[in-house]
């Protein structure tokens, strides 16, 4: 604060409740009209935008505290529920499509799985990150966006959710279960290439909306769900468009159909690693001007935590 003449101090201690005292202790009003000031600039709790001080006006003060940490148990629980919803929805739609002789159509299968991904991300993304997929978990960990020590717990929850959904569906629709299994309809080489490419597409988009502060994180559910729908329209007829090892593993065990299962356990992981790595290589640097980085407002957090 610039030194300036002020009125004589009162004889009693000045508090925020004292008539005529400043609202915040140690804050003296400026008499210059158009000077920009930042209130409590050194306080990390308060986030106060610069304001043009006018006589008799007060700034708007907001306090943004970091959210409380989420325990690993809660994260794993949310991951289990989210993966259960996804596997149940995607597999059930495929089984119903088989039972009704194709009434759902490929567009219905794509819409069902894409909508399931979208609602799970929007409902649990702020808790667990809504990976729902071991390939995504491994890719995030490989790029240091997720701790390796949590990877086994996440993958265990995803695998358990896959088995749970698959055997519940087997109990409901038995003996019709084959339609829910993702198997290659052509050559294994073609199936591997398609699964790699669509997993690459998925992870490229996921990495963008989940790790880049310039992406619109609030629309992550819509973006990722739309990508899943697109991928199913591309590869659904050829491979079932798994993109997810546990999407294939649980139904395959429940239906005792392991045709080409190695494709679905390897291609999605390799494709996800490639997609995450390529996006990380081409994205803009975090701070174009490091000297001005402290003056930039922090971006809204993405769906991944």
TrEMBL record:
This is Aquaporin NIP6-1. It is found in: Membrane. Residues 1-23, 286-305 are annotated as: Disordered. Belongs to the MIP/aquaporin (TC 1.A.8) family. NIP (TC 1.A.8.12) subfamily. Residues 1-15 have a biased composition (Polar residues). InterPro entries: Aquaporin-like, Aquaporin_transptr, MIP, MIP_CS. Coiled coil: none annotated. The chain crosses the membrane at residues 76-96, 108-131, 151-173, 185-207, 219-240, 261-282. Keywords: Membrane, Repeat, Transmembrane, Transmembrane helix, Transport. GO terms for cellular component: membrane. One of its GO terms (molecular function) is active borate transmembrane transporter activity. Its main location: membrane. It is a multi-pass membrane protein. It comes from the Eukaryota.
């Amino acid at each position: 604060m610039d030194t300036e003449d002020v009125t004589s101090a009162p004889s009693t201690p000045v508090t925020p409740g004292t008539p005529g005292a400043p609202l915040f202790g140690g804050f003296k009003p400026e008499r210059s009209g158009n000077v920009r000031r930042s209130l409590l600039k050194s306080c990390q709790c308060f986030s106060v935008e610069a304001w043009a001080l006018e006589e008799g006006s007060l700034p708007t003060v907001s306090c943004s505290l970091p959210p409380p940490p989420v325990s690993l148990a809660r994260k794993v629980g949310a991951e289990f529920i989210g993966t259960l919803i996804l596997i149940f929805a995607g597999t059930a739609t495929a089984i119903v499509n088989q039972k009704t002789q194709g009434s759902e159509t490929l567009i219905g299968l794509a819409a069902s799985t894409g909508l399931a991904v979208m609602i799970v991300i929007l409902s649990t993304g702020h808790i667990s990150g809504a990976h729902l997929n071991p390939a995504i978990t491994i890719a995030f960990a490989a790029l240091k966006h997720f701790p390796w020590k949590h990877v086994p717990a996440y993958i265990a929850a995803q695998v358990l959710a896959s088995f749970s959904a698959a055997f519940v569906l087997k109990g409901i629709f038995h003996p019709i279960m084959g339609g829910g299994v993702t198997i290659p309809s052509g050559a294994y080489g073609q199936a591997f290439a398609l699964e790699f490419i669509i997993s690459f597409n998925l992870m490229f988009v996921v990495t963008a909306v989940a790790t880049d502060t310039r992406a619109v994180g609030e629309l992550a559910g819509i973006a990722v769900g739309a990508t899943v729908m697109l991928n199913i329209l591309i590869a659904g007829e050829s491979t079932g468009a798994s993109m997810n090892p546990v999407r294939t593993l649980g139904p395959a065990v429940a239906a005792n159909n392991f045709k080409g299962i190695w494709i679905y356990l390897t291609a999605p992981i390799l494709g996800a690693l490639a997609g995450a790595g390529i996006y990380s290589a081409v994205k803009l640097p975090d701070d174009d001007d490091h000297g001005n980085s402290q003056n930039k407002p922090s971006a809204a957090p993405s769906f991944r935590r």
